[in-house]
Amino acid sequence: MGMSQTREIGAEKETYTVRPMVESDLTGVARILVSSGICEDEDDLSRRVGLLLLEGNRLCFVAVADPGGPVLGVLLAIFNGFHVFLSHLAVHAEHRGLGVAQRLHEELLVHAVRLGAKGVIADSRLTTTGFFYRLGYRVPGVVFLVNRLEGTDGMSRTAHLP
To answer: Virtual CA dihedral for 20, 23, 82, 63, nearest 10 degrees?
Structure first.
């Protein structure tokens, strides 16, 4: 954990560190997820990720510019006792294509192995499946179904039984 990576851009060198997310990262995390189009409301997102940080089964990592610089990338995942579910992976637009997401993913794999996970399941947009294929992910032949709870009182829209 906390391993630094250095990358060269022309004559400049930029260093970043991948480490567990802390509360002070929430604003930067929310900005990246909203600017990436993954989420919409920065304030609500900061609150939700803050709650995730309080849970014991969280796997939340950030890539930050050294020393103490801005958040460059974020990875959010949870462990259910069997699999790690990678739900969000995003990198600031200026740092995409430079290995930040791959480094965040490597950190997740280290922790997944330590936890004894059977595998990692990634929630991916169709536009990013190529990235996950390059990391070794495959479509297992199953379909994940989502029941959006927005606009309800917390009950599934189809769960209203007589």
So the answer is: -30
